[in-house]
Amino acid sequence: MNTPPLQSESANELYASLPPELRTELAHYEQSVTVPEGTNLIKRGVLPDQLVIVNSGKVEITFDCVRESVSVDCAAEGKVFGMRAVVSGELPEADVTSQESCHVTLIPRNAFLGVVRQHPQMYFAIAKILSSDLVMAQRLLKTSLRRRASKGAGGPLVRWPH
Length: 162
Fold this sequence. Notes:
The protein is 33% helix and 28% strand. By secondary structure, the protein is an alpha+beta fold.
């Protein structure tokens, strides 16, 4: 059996902004797993026990909007999910579900928060991720508004830009 490399050895949006010593410290808490299609990685309304980093595979992000659920099809390599909920304690507003077998890295919430408390400079990396999520949400809203205006645009699936 081949042991997959620790997430700290590969690129993701969190580790891209961290110095090597912080990546190494977080690596002590990582658990790398492969999850099957249909696995709920983040559940709307439930505080996650861990940060989820998608190393390979595709996920679907589903948001409840006023009149319908909106899904974002995401090739998520390197994407971090659950950051806002883990850092703020706010419940997630979206479901994140694997669309195929995905290799993910999990970092327990309490361990992650402990490292953040010891190294407050990590907040800059966290802010970058949250900012990226806001940009994605803005694109989703614009696409949704255009779709509603054209009225003939099929179902609610929106593709996340790769």
